[in-house]
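can u do me a favor
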């Protein structure tokens, strides 16, 4: 559980940019004008909720449909982290190749899809983690185990604020500061996801048959 908790910290550190630095990105660098009407920055926060409601049944059906090929708990965590990394990869691409030379802004769809991709990652990780704790913790320590899970999430949220402050830049978010920060986020997430995939058999062995 402690090994998984460490990866959980990394996931939420970057996932929670959705409520912090992504808002500055939307305000300063995303093209939100549609024929005289401007898409409000705050509305981006609804994308995650809509994606979760829409995609949760699909992901749940997929796990059941896979049967014996269903990935182990550590590998589902790895998938969640990798999907989070892919969202940052899209931002890297947008900030390096899709910036309009006149407005210095990236297309609306890029940030919209970042929220959707992150939501897929959340669905691979968050419900699996909650289930894992109840399965692995001794009955008398389930509450303690859940506290550990939420503590790791809280640490990730705190680190997300520190990371967001660096991405936002000293004088406000710019294309350069965003690209540098999100590139760092991509490599950390992909590296962590690949590492988790590689050590998944070891973690699974430590779980004594829990699936």
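np, heres the sequence
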């Amino acid at each position: 559980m402690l090994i998984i908790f460490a990866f959980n910290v990394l996931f939420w550190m970057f996932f929670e940019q959705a409520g912090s630095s992504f808002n500055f990105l939307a305000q300063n660098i995303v093209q939100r004008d549609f024929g005289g009407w401007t898409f409000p920055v705050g509305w981006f926060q609804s994308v995650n909720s809509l994606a979760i409601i829409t995609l949760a049944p699909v992901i749940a059906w997929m796990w059941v449909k896979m049967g014996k090929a269903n990935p182990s708990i550590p590998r589902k965590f790895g998938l969640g982290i990798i999907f989070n990394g892919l969202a940052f990869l899209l931002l890297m691409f947008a900030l390096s190749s899709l910036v309009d030379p006149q407005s210095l802004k990236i297309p609306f769809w890029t940030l919209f899809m970042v929220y959707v991709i992150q939501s897929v990652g959340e669905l691979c990780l968050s419900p699996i983690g909650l289930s894992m704790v109840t399965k692995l913790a001794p009955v008398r320590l389930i509450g303690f185990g859940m506290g550990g899970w939420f503590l790791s999430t809280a640490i990730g949220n705190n680190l997300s604020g520190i990371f967001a402050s660096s991405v936002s830049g000293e004088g406000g978010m710019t294309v350069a500061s965003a690209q540098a920060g999100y590139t760092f986020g991509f490599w950390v997430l992909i590296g962590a996801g690949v590492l988790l995939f590689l050590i998944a058999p070891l973690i699974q062995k430590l779980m004594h048959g829990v699936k």
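The domain at 2-30+41-206 is CATH 1.20.1250.20 (Growth Hormone; Chain: A;). hope that helps!!
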